[in-house]
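for the recovery benchmark. tokens below, seq after
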């Protein structure tokens, strides 16, 4: 098969390699029809997570010589099931699915990928393959962050949520997930030209480029029970000031220093310095009855099933900024590396 491969963390190149085989019960072989490109793909193709994911790979394989490289990036796809392994009862060859692949496994920027059946869900029948693939990774990341924040379908109605980066892949999906759960008040920072998009999704947009004006607007819209940060900006850090006091309010950031610290300093020092940064941010909140946490993409079958249902009901719509061909992957990586999206860049496989 054709696959985009990072040989040693210095970018990607197109290679001909063997089609992967099912090795464990519960796995499926998927023929990829479309995949999204995410900042993590660009980062991993350049070595991000080399230390942590490399160590994880060795432990998972019980083999000290195992390595993360060569690696295939790509964390989600829309696909057709080619074959199913033992113990897979919910899928059959020919089914059209959405899938997510954990960071430790080979990814979806290849013609075939192995996925866990439990992390696949039905492709919404109203969406094309390229539209559908704009959903899984960003939705699962938003879902993971809300899980840490203890926001869910049952309690979202009563939460007031501030999202930093509302026009990006994760931010725009976080708004839609909250809306689907019945959340009434969502405020999102974005640039001025993203106002129509953010408003259409159901959030109140705030222009982050004028910091003082943004602060005043946020003060007038406060308090918030939940802050979700997808950008790690000064305004995002300041926004602890518009959270409720002594009401268990939470600030969750998906921009964690963990992997970069570990890549730079090794696992023990990297863990220690991340914990120190976490402590510095948490301690201020702690004295005001609030809390802070980093959050990470965690594959979830529950999220995938909700996503398919909400998308089929039209409650969640894909926001696709650019569709590229499989052969144009390098161009797609350059685009995504700019972190200035209005939704997703997706790859259509021929
Ligand atoms: N922890 C995890 O597991 C995890 C998972 C997924 C993503 N991430 C990280 O989360 C970040 C966002 O990912 P993404 O996929 O949403 O990226 P994306 O689609 O490129 O979106 C980034 C968005 O941030 C906006 N932005 C930039 N500066 C801003 C600011 N100061 N205030 C408000 N918005 C600002 C950009 O809009 P403008 O063009 O209008 O500025 C853009 O819409 C990335 O750093 C990614 O690595 C982490």
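predicted aa per position
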């Amino acid at each position: 098969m054709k696959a985009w491969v990072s040989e040693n963390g210095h970018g990607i190149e197109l290679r001909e390699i063997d089609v992967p085989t099912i090795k464990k019960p519960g796995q499926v072989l998927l023929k990829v029809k479309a995949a999204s490109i995410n900042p993590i793909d660009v980062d991993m193709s350049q070595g991000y997570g080399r230390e942590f994911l490399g160590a994880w790979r060795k432990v998972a394989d019980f083999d000290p010589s195992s390595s993360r490289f060569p690696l295939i990036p790509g964390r989600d796809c829309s696909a057709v099931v080619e074959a199913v392994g033992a113990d897979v009862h919910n899928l059959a060859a020919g089914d059209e699915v959405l899938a997510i692949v954990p960071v430790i496994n080979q990814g979806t920027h290849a013609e075939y990928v192995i996925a866990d059946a439990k992390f696949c869900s039905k492709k919404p029948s109203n969406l094309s393959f390229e539209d559908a693939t704009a959903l899984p990774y960003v939705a699962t990341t938003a879902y993971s962050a809300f899980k840490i924040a203890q926001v869910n379908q049952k309690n979202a109605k009563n939460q007031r949520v501030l999202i930093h980066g509302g026009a990006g892949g994760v931010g725009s999906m976080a708004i839609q997930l909250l809306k689907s759960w019945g959340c009434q008040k969502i405020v999102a920072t974005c640039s001025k030209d993203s106002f129509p998009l953010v408003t259409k999704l159901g959030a109140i947009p705030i222009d982050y480029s004028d910091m003082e004006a943004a602060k005043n607007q946020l003060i007038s819209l406060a308090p918030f029970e939940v802050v979700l940060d997808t950008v790690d900006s000064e305004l995002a850090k300041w926004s602890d000031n518009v959270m409720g006091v002594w009401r268990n309010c939470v600030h969750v950031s998906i921009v964690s220093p963990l992997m970069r610290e570990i890549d730079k300093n090794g696992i023990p020092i990297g863990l220690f310095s991340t914990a120190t940064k976490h402590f510095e941010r948490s301690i201020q909140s702690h004295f005001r009855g609030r809390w802070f946490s980093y959050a990470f993409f965690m594959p979830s079958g529950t999220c995938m099933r909700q996503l398919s249902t909400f998308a089929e009901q039209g409650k969640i719509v894909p926001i696709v900024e650019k569709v590229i061909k499989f052969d144009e992957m390098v161009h797609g990586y350059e685009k995504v590396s700019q972190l200035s999206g209005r939704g997703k860049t997706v790859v259509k496989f021929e």
